[in-house]
Structures are given as structure tokens and as C-alpha cells.
Design brief:
This protein is an alpha+beta fold. The protein has a 7-stranded mixed beta sheet with strand order 1-2-3-4-5-7-6, sandwiched between helices.
Length: about 170
């Protein structure tokens, strides 16, 4: 019998290639048909291995969830960027490879990211999700987030609504 271990840890530069793969697969799965194709492809292509290695080396906190030694997902976290919201922490991104979605890894990674922000003294949490990304909306609502604000992201002159979920 094989036992798979699940580990959530701070990313290291050696994880850059795996994170770039997760990013590409997850973004295509989440945003195809929502973000215009040309823009989505450009956004994905900008974040290759070198981009992720630099992000990990910089002050950005990147967490990875590994299952059986394979990086299945990542989260990027830090200070809240929306000054109009009083929450101090923010999860900027939380993504899993499509084949690892729906089995609880996202919730584990979310809880670990939330705890890491609290450990850094950041009270409260905000996460933004595009309104057309129904899986993300259901995920954050299912994890206790309250939908309290809206914003707009523009892609190729196309305005897409985004929703802020908060936790106190």
C-alpha cells in the first residue's frame, strides 16, 4: 500500500518550473472563455520559470501544496492592496492543477495561507475573484468568505467585474 503525503510549504526557487506549469494549466482552465484568448495567452506566457524564480526570491510569499512530491498548486500572499478595505492580508492567487481540484487540497492551501498571514500579524483577509469565474466564487463562499465589494478589471477594452470576499 502506498501512502501519499500532502505538504504545504514556502516555495523554493527549485519549484519555479512546477509552479509555472500549475499557473499555465489552472489559468487556462479557469479563464478560457472569460478573459479574451490573446490576453490570457500573453498573461500566461509572461509568467514562465524565470518569472516565478524571481518572485520566490523576492519578498513575495509563495506557498506550494505538494501531494506525493508533486507540486499540485500554489498560493501567493501578502498585504492587502485595496486601501478601501480594512482587512490587512490578501491572498493574491490560489490555483491548483485541474486534476487536483475538488478533492480538498484548495481548502487546505487556503487555510494554510490564511494562517501564514495571521502569523505575520495581518488581521483579516481579502481575496478577489472574477465574477464570471463561478468555481472561484463558490470556493470562497464555501470557505466562509463574505462578498462585500466589487471592482473591475479591463482586458482588451472588455470590463470584467471582480468580487472581493473577506474574512475577519
Amino acid at each position: 500500500m502506498n501512502t501519499l503525503t500532502i505538504d504545504i510549504r514556502k516555495a523554493e526557487p527549485r519549484d519555479a518550473g512546477a509552479i509555472a506549469e500549475v499557473h499555465q494549466q489552472a489559468w487556462r482552465g479557469a479563464y478560457s472563455g472569460i478573459i479574451p484568448h490573446r490576453t490570457l495567452t500573453s498573461m500566461i506566457n509572461r509568467r514562465g520559470v524565470d518569472w516565478w524564480a524571481n518572485a520566490i526570491r523576492r519578498a513575495a510569499t509563495v506557498l506550494v501544496v505538494e501531494i506525493g512530491g508533486t507540486v499540485a498548486g500554489y498560493a501567493t500572499i501578502g498585504k492587502n492592496r485595496a486601501r478601501e478595505l480594512r482587512q490587512q492580508g490578501e491572498i493574491y492567487e490560489l490555483y491548483l492543477r485541474p486534476e487536483y481540484q475538488g478533492i480538498g487540497l484548495g481548502s487546505r492551501l487556503f487555510k494554510a495561507a490564511k494562517a501564514r498571514l495571521a502569523d505575520h500579524g495581518l488581521r483579516g483577509l481579502v481575496v478577489w475573484a472574477l465574477e464570471d469565474n463561478h468555481n472561484a466564487l463558490a470556493f470562497y463562499a464555501g470557505n466562509g468568505g463574505r462578498d462585500i465589494a466589487e471592482g473591475v478589471e479591463v482586458f482588451e477594452q472588455r470590463a470584467l467585474k471582480k468580487v472581493a470576499f473577506v474574512w475577519e
